[in-house]
Amino acid sequence: MSDERVAIVTGSGKGIGRAIAERLARDGYRVVINYKRDAASAHEALTAVQASAPESIVLQADVATPQGARELIEQTHSHFGRLDVLVNNAGPFLVKPVFDTTIEEWQEIIDGNLSSAFYCIKAALPIMRAQKHGHIINIGSLNAENARGAPTTVAYNVAKTGLVVLSKSVARSEARHGIRCNIINPGFIETYATTDSDKRELPSIIPLGALGKVEDISNLVAYLLSEQANYLTGSVINVHGGLWV
């Protein structure tokens, strides 16, 4: 069974998404690397993933659009004949208050972080229902389960809080079909986008005194997909070193 399983990780050309893809490949999944624009990074990620899972592929698709998400799922199913895991990792970030956020920026953040997950889940559920099993993991944001004011990241926080509701709703509706859905909310994780200033200043406000590693997220994804987590669905798991508890 292990060498047959198929996983899609959206936005997996770099950062957390790539780390998840590499871990799933090591765990025996054939992985679909997905990207929107950065083909070079996606193919670098594919090379790394294929070291463990040679049959893995890369597919370009803008999952923030219904057509792009549908094509990603359909092409995966057409190529492999199954879909066991969907990790909704893609999502742009924006630091702006309401006053300065344009309509276009609002739509981009909501579509990229929330609608993209809905579109992919909507396309994947018929396949997973037919299989009578499947796992969906959404990547949220720090403490997104707590609706709170976000004066400088309003669109992003609205989208990620909505993603928590979507995750819980899918968990409740799809459990009877053998499908589990959970959401991981990362805190400050060190990635390619982390600045030197972040590395100097952020650890001082984190109780554990350090930025998280991408492996902290990929290891949790692996656990959620393991038999040890068979009874976990609808869970909201924060990975933040104790920040804002």
Brief write-up:
The protein is an alpha/beta fold. 43% of the residues lie in helices and 15% in strands.
Q: What is the N-to-C succession of helices and strands?
A: EHEHEHEHEHEHHE
The first-level CATH class is given as Alpha Beta
Count of spatially separate domains: 1
**Overall average pLDDT:** 96
* Strand line-up across the major sheet: 3-2-1-4-5-6-7
Radius of gyration, taken over Cα atoms and rounded to an integer in Å: 17 Å
> First CA to last CA: what distance?
39 Å
How is the CATH topology named?
Rossmann fold
Structural class per helix/strand content? alpha/beta
- Compute the number of strand runs: 7
Our count of helices gives: 7
**Named CATH architecture:** 3-Layer(aba) Sandwich
Approximate helicity band: 40-55%
Shape from CA axes? globular
Determine the CATH superfamily. Answer: NAD(P)-binding Rossmann-like Domain
| Beta-strand share of residues | 5-15%
Query: Main β-sheet: number of strands, strand sense, barrel status?
Result: 7 strands, parallel
Low-confidence stretches: none
Task: Describe it.
43% of the residues lie in helices and 15% in strands. By secondary structure, it is of the alpha/beta class. It has one domain: NAD(P)-binding Rossmann-like Domain (Rossmann fold, 3-Layer(aba) Sandwich). A 7-stranded parallel beta sheet has the order 3-2-1-4-5-6-7, with helices on both faces. Helix 1 runs parallel beside helix 2 and helix 1 crosses helix 7. It is globular, with a radius of gyration of 17 Å. The chain starts with 5 loop residues before the first strand and ends in a 6-residue tail after the last strand. The model has no long low-confidence stretch (mean pLDDT 96).
